[in-house]
DNA sequence: GTCTATAACCGGATAGAC
DNA sequence: GTCTATCCGGTTATAGAC
């Protein structure tokens, strides 16, 4: 008697359609790759009209992005489990990187497309863009957690820069992974296995007296660079 | 009496048309950017038909590439002049990097497009692809010349890897430059000025006894990685 | 206001005649 | 070598249904 003619199941009329479209897209991307998939094909398989598909997804690209976003959250989850069990930095770092490429595996085929647009400074998808700041923040947060592990000897100033540096390192690994055509991404795995200990060792060397001044200078510059980035470009000066 | 009815200037019937099209493309890219330029517009301005434009350039992308190739050769020239006058590694490296961003400046606007396709592993434009091996080779050759300068203390094994490492460093600088919106690319210039000395110093540190084993291990791995890349992926093993 | 569909538009790319 | 005619697929405009 309270509620008028409003239908009960208000939950998600279109949300389901949206899901159907995304599902169809994922299937087709898997079957034929990004370029081989057409928006018309996606709409067809989802049983909707072309225009309708565009009602839910502004472009073909955001379809891949939505698809890829899954991998990001999956990674956060898996990484969480790694961090809960591993206590040594080295193991933590290796674990975070390995889970990254593992959760990304289903997307390897289109990672090229993703990376492509990511490299474009105009694109909101660029890892350096304003829009992707949240997920970048999440990734560096992960690195903050990583370096809470045992086995790291470092100075406070270097430590402060480490999350960003490790994020960059991770980007490098991903770039390698994208180009890795070996079965089981064996080559990327080797890369991780070999470079993680090196990275940790190099960081630890940073506290050696001979290297101290160098480290200090480098971190000072990094800090400067990072802080300048936060501030919108100054037309003056 | 020897030559029949054939016109004398046989040199380049179509080569001129080709040039006209490229010229028109460059103008339009400059005026309206990559996306704002259409193949029809290019053909129009060049005074040829659309189909004809495609006869000379397989795609819109290769037009930008041809355009960009100029910058590459220009850079080789400018770098040559730098290497002829500068004797110290640091000055040589800085000079090579500065001329790189300076000769690339006219292309800054589309560098996004270039980099975009370059990041795609499928693309023949990818700096890691077979097709771009020649220009990559030229760039690492340049780095070989750079390290012939004075002021470098290093071991043979590290030295052997340096050209590739410095090429990677240069790629990093370019990535930064692409995203650099500061006037006169001031930020990239600062980046170069600050990091070049650091890089040289780090390399020189590589010969310190404490670091030797680390360097040796790292270079061994790099060599392994590089050599494996030359060999086509082995399906066996 | 939320959803769905049809009919274009636009621009990159190709086929094939001359 | 050059053109015209088309294709193809991403994207948009727009109209109507719920």
Which features does this protein show?
homodimer, 237 residues, mainly alpha, Tetracycline Repressor, domain 2, 10 helices, elongated
Please describe what this structure looks like:
The structure is a homodimer of 237-residue chains. The first copy, chain A, is mainly α and 237 residues long. Chain A folds into 2 domains: 13-57, Arc Repressor Mutant, subunit A (Orthogonal Bundle); 60-230, Orthogonal Bundle (Tetracycline Repressor, domain 2), CATH 1.10.357. Chain A is 73% helix and 0% strand. Chain A has helices at 13-36, 39-46, 50-56, 60-85, 89-104, 108-119, 133-146, 156-179, 186-205, 209-230. The longest helix of chain A has 26 residues, at 60-85. The termini of chain A are far apart. The model of chain A is unreliable at 1-10 (pLDDT under 50). At the A-B interface, helix 6, helix 8, helix 9 and helix 10 of A face helix 6, helix 8, helix 9 and helix 10 of B. The structure holds a DNA duplex (18 and 18 nucleotides).
Number of strands of chain A: 0
User: Structural class of the secondary elements of chain A?
Assistant: mainly alpha
| Total of domains of chain A | 2
* Biggest interface, CB < 8 A: A-B, 38 and 38 residues
| CATH-defined fold name of the largest domain in chain A | Tetracycline Repressor, domain 2
């Amino acid at each position: 008697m309270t509620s008028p003619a409003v239908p009960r199941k208000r939950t998600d009329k279109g949300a389901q359609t949206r899901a159907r479209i995304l599902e169809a897209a994922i299937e087709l991307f898997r079957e034929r790759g990004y370029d081989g998939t057409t928006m018309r094909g996606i709409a067809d398989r989802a049983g909707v009209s072309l225009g309708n598909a565009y009602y839910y997804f502004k472009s073909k690209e955001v379809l891949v992005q939505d698809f890829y976003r899954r991998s990001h959250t999956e990674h956060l989850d898996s990484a969480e489990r790694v961090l809960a069990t591993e206590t040594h930095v080295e193991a933590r770092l290796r674990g975070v990187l390995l889970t990254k490429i593992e959760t990304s595996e289903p997307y390897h085929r289109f990672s090229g497309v993703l990376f492509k647009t990511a490299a474009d400074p105009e694109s909101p998808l660029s890892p350096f863009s304003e829009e992707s700041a949240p997920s970048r923040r999440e990734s560096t947060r992960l690195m903050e957690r990583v370096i809470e592990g045992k086995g790291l000897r470092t100075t406070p100033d270097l430590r402060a820069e480490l999350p960003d540096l490790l994020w960059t390192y991770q980007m490098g690994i991903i770039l390698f992974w994208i180009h890795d055509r070996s079965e089981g991404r064996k080559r990327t795995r080797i890369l991780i296995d070999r470079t993680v200990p090196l990275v940790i060792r190099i960081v630890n060397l940073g506290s050696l007296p001979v290297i101290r001044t160098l480290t200090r200078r480098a971190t000072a510059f990094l800090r400067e660079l990072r802080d300048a980035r936060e501030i919108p470009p100054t037309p003056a000066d």
